[in-house]
Known about the structure:
Number of domains of chain A: 2
Largest sheet of chain A: none
Number of domains of chain C: 1
Helix content of chain A: 55-70%
Order of helices and strands of chain C: HHHHHHHHHHHHHHHHHEHE
Mean pLDDT of chain A: 80
Structural class of chain C: mainly alpha
Number of helices of chain C: 18
Helix content of chain C: 55-70%
Number of strands of chain C: 2
Number of helices of chain A: 3
Strand content of chain A: under 5%
Strand content of chain C: under 5%
Radius of gyration of chain A: 25 Å
Structural class of chain A: mainly alpha
Number of strands of chain A: 0
Strand order of the largest sheet of chain C: 1-2
Shape of chain A: flat
Mean pLDDT of chain C: 73
Oligomer: heterotrimer
Distance between the termini of chain A: 64 Å
Amino acid sequence: MITELFADYIAVLIATILGFLLVAGALFGNRILAPRQPTRTKGVTYECGMLPIGRSRTQVHFRYYLFAILFLIFDIEAVFLFPWSVAFVKIGAQAFWEMVVFILILAFGLLYAWKKGVLSWGKET
Amino acid sequence: MTYEEVIFYVIAVPTVVGAIGVVTARNVVHSALFLILSLLSVAGIFILLSAEFLAIVQVLIYGGAVTILVLFAMMLTRVRDLPAALDGPQRPFAALAAGAFMAVSIFSMVSTDWPGETDKINVISIEQIGNDLFTTWAVPFEVASLVLMVALLGAIVLARGEEGE
Amino acid sequence: MMRLDADWYDFRDLGNTVGSLLEQIRDWGAPDWVPYVVSGLIGVLAILLWTILSVLAFIWIERRVVGLMQNRIGPNRVGPNGLLQPVADALKLLFKEPITTRDADRILFWLAPIVVFVPTIVVFAVIPFGERMVLADLNVGVLFLIAVGSLNTIAIFMAGWSSNNKYALIGAMRTIAMLISYELIQVLVLLAAVLFVGSMRLGDIVAWQADYGVWILFLQPLGVLGYIVAGAVEMNRSPTDIAEAESEIVAGYHTEYGGIKFGFFYQAEYLAGFAIAAVIVTLYMGGWTLWGLEEWVPGWLIFLGKLYGVFFIYIWSRGTLPRLRIDQLMAFAWKFLLPLSLVNVMIVGGEKLLWQEAHRHRRRVLFALSYNNFVRTRRCRRAEPDSRGRVPDPELRRSGRTLHNIIGGFHCCHAGPDLRGCRLSAYSVRDSADADRRPWESRDVLASAGPSAGAARGVYAGIRGDRH
């Protein structure tokens, strides 16, 4: 027996498979149809027409990591907000204030990050 | 074999392949991408169990946020091109820890009394999750926000220290 | 519900046709999973066909329209009025030699176009095109949209990393940082829309708007503005196409991609655009309903009309606004939009409580709340000062000629430390009195795009450096 819920996701699964097949088919067709004459220079990594200098997989700046952490934390917050949004009316004002406290606590974290300059991409001026 | 089982195996294979790939890949970035495969397949298993909300959260938090964090953390390090860096003198300890964890998981799996053999799946709606979260579990919920904020502060303090060096 | 038992030839809702077909199949005594699979296949194939045709059409429309906006012609050679240009381009891409650089990670390089494309198709599975024209009306529809939409970061990382190219890696990192920041905004503004309806099912949201005869757009002007901005980022188009800042990092994460693989990145961007427009239409503009007109006109035509209208706004903004720098965009997300959307969630929550209390006067309270929110949004726009604490130039706002006033919010002044006290203005060559005054000759700076890119666009809209 297929549950109603799972039936919906069958369509999602089919969309995934067909999308995959479409792209894979086009890539395969490209392989058959297109000419292939690899030369040495074609295989060189693009770097403004010059030969590439140094290794490509450079280290990146720390701030990317910080933004990822900020994103993770606020994403989790948002996930908590969704069950609240569909349920809080029945519970009433109590749930509303619970959420206000929740948001304010995290807003304090955001404020701290702001004051510490984490939210600035470049150098502080 | 019922088609639930067919679908289960279709989803379980990438989960296991991903999990094995994480530990066997010689390249850290490949490991991370295998991890994503594994985590997303677990979302499929959640859907099979009618745990819709959990599945979406799995995709959103693990598939979208945690993996980005992991990938960004890797981009910070210098070792990612060197397969040798994956090996080290700590290998026996790692094996011990992993083995112990596996033993505990297997033990708990075997010893738990699973309510199997039921035809009915209890679908828990998102309203119900919200209801329970904001009445019965209101205090742990507020504590969760504190934990999140402490994590945020900790990350910032650590990062600032790192940058100062 | 007159339409639910309509005949199969009732074209007002194509779902009827599929519905009768499924009943046929059931009558033949097929196993119970067959109808689901058949309806899924029909729906997905229809969506694929529609997306491919729409993308081809809109490539042409966009190039012609942006050409007109920039005082040039645009493609007009292949076919009548250049109509076949996108087809020719697609064929060309298909016949181009696939080049993979020597040091690239071949498997990931090949996988990235697939991973970027598949989620953009999956998103359309939950969009209601008409009353019965939705493949999967999930209970968690809104969250599903966001979750699937967030998967493109992985594909972008794969593309950028596997290319083994510095520009590609930096482009990927920047794009991901930007995407995750604006994803947060998306989640929070969509949450505010969900709050009023009390359901995450897209069908319920459309029905709610039809019942009360009001679009959520009017209740949540702030939310829709935030979503439009976040959507522009998500679809990676100008003015927020950091990934393709050609003056800085060539083509960003797809620098090394060519041929059909590049084609799929390109198409995925378009499809993301359609998906964003579809979300705006469904959540904020009543979906396939139009105050009773859907009884007479096919709902899917109304839906598509709205969708193309919203997408046109993005084309318009591409022809009008200059590219913003990454630091400006990040600061705008974290220092302006995020606090604003958090406050928005709290205020809308309070309003919902009030509205729930007012049993009898629901509709009237709705109007009051809508008025309140509009005033609040206007105040936000007005209160948004430059970094020296001054409000934006009132004359510029009153002129009303640029999308700047409509989209509201692409103010650079929050962000750039180099651009303190500056503001973003945008005017087309034809309108401008000082048309031949090149921005780079004066103290004007073009955001991130170099002078040549600006000139090529013919629109120089710059960040004017005059500290008024």
